[in-house]
Design brief:
Helix 4 (about 85-90) runs parallel beside helix 5 and helix 4 (about 85-90) crosses helix 9. The protein has two domains: about 35-250, 3-Layer(aba) Sandwich (Aspartate Aminotransferase, domain 2); about 255-390, Aspartate Aminotransferase, domain 1. The protein has helices spanning about 5-10, 35-45, 60-70, 85-90, 110-120, 135-140, 165-175, 185-190, 225-235, 240-255, 255-275, 295-300, 315-325, 355-360, 375-390; strands spanning about 80, 100-105, 125-130, 145-150, 175-180, 200, 215-220, 280-285, 305-310, 330, 340-345, 365-370. It has a seven-stranded mixed beta sheet with strand order 1-7-6-5-4-2-3, with helices on both faces. It starts with a helix and ends with a helix. With about 400 residues, the chain is α/β, with parallel strands linked by helices. Helix 5 (about 110-120) links the parallel strand 2 (about 100-105) and strand 3. The longest helix is centred in the C-terminal third of the chain and has 20 residues, at about 255-275. It binds pyridoxal-5'-phosphate.
């Protein structure tokens, strides 16, 4: 007898196996079937475990969250569909009209936009202040300040925030401290152990590490806060794709190896760049010539991270010549890839700023930011030397 269409429509039972796969399965199911209403009720009440609807949670997100929880010393982290979703959930899931939020003035570009343009439409006031200057930062606090949002190492000038002072002022005044730890990673510093209440990641970057998954992570120390962030993320549909979560989980197996190698390369590349003709300055947090050297060493020890910035002589023409002379180094506005990538803030992340505002930060046409990868360091040094020589011609 041929199969009837009906038998194809009904799900074929998943094969039983006493052995378990070593690799995590990818579970794309949008919905989960429960045995009866009593059980479903218990699942929603949280008295029996079980997934119901993927927007509210799925195994691939939970496996990924558990891995990042372990790195950050967090519990019950939430995976979102992007790093910006995580930033948005942390702010909008917690703040209400009338609240004030104080942010670092060199936050990630879209975080700045969220603070300056979007929160205001919902009646949430925002001030940006320099987190490397504790006095200026404290002066921007208001009676209605409910949250502080900072990054430890800024983009692209790699300035180091005065985390101990900011955490102390937040604690003393009962203000929530949220840290976007994307640049520093838990390998460099774990914010929850330094007074932060909320930790945020763009998992898209070095945690996942292969430029093939767009994801975010947010964890809060306080379960009530965690619940508010989770509910906001679920209601506004910030859910991550199971496949992306699976890719990021796979990436995380090698995160520590990749990070350590990239950091070792970054340190060596910074020293190499500083010796090349045509290079005006090099920024790397733990180098003695960095403006926040002492704070970087006190906070991060030897963990200067995988990011290096530098400035060459000359304008846009020299910058064009540099990227063209280094075709093996992807000129791409991202960071944290397994391979080295190069970004040019004046034409990308900071293009919306006036030239004068950029100049105040030291971002000229000759300014580049490097996300250092795990390549052979001798190759990297030679490629940068050739590219910088080409730019000088
Ligand atoms: C990239 C990035 C984000 C945004 O993450 P997406 O995954 O691109 O949405 C937020 N903060 C920092 C520091 C980033 O580098």
């Amino acid at each position: 007898m041929p199969e009837t269409p009906t038998s194809l429509i009904r799900r074929t039972p998943w094969p039983d196996s006493t052995s378990r796969p070593l690799g995590s399965p990818i579970q794309p199911s949008v919905v989960y079937a429960s045995p009866d209403p009593d059980t479903l009720d218990a699942q929603y009440a949280g008295t029996t475990p079980g997934y119901t609807y993927a927007r509210e949670g799925h195994p691939n997100a939970d496996v990924l969250a558990a891995k990042i929880d372990g790195l950050e010393g967090a519990t019950d982290g939430i995976i979102t569909g992007s790093g910006m979703a995580a930033v948005t959930a942390a702010l909008m899931g917690v703040l209400k009209a009338g609240d004030h939020v104080l942010g670092g003035d060199q936050l990630y570009g879209r975080s700045l936009r969220l603070m300056n343009q979007d929160l205001a439409r919902f009646g949430i006031a925002t001030t940006l202040a320099d987190p490397t200057d504790a006095t200026a930062f404290e002066a921007a606090i208001r009676p209605e300040t409910r949250m502080i949002l900072i990054e430890i190492v800024s983009n692209p000038t790699l300035r180091v925030a005065d985390l101990p002072a900011i955490a102390a002022m937040a604690r003393a005044r009962g203000i929530l401290l949220a840290v976007d730890n994307t640049f520093t990673t838990p390998r460099g510093l774990r914010p929850l152990y330094h007074g932060a209440d909320i930790v945020i990641h763009s998992v898209t970057k070095i945690l996942a590490g292969h430029s093939d998954a767009t994801l975010g992570y947010v964890a809060a120390k306080d379960p009530t806060l965690r619940r508010a962030i989770y509910d906001f993320a679920v209601t506004t549909g910030m859910t991550a794709s199971p496949f992306d979560c699976w890719l990021a989980e796979r990436g995380l197996f090698s995160f520590e190896l990749r990070y350590d190698r990239a950091e070792e390369n970054a340190r060596a590349l910074a020293d190499h760049l500083s010796g090349l003709t045509g290079v005006r300055r090099v920024l790397y947090p733990t180098r003695p010539d960095h403006p926040d050297h002492n704070r970087a060493v006190a906070l991060l020890g030897t963990r200067g991270g995988h990011m290096v910035s530098f400035e060459i002589e000359g304008g846009r023409a020299a910058a064009n010549a540099l990227t063209r002379a280094a075709p093996q180094i992807a000129f791409a506005p991202t960071l944290g890839d397994i391979g080295t990538t190069l970004s040019h803030p004046a034409s990308s992340s900071h293009r919306g700023m006036s030239e004068a505002a950029r100049a105040a930060l030291g971002i000229t046409e000759g300014f580049f930011r490097v996300s250092v990868g795990v390549e052979d360091i001798a190759t990297l040094k030679a490629e940068f030397a050739a590219a910088i020589a080409a730019a000088a011609r």
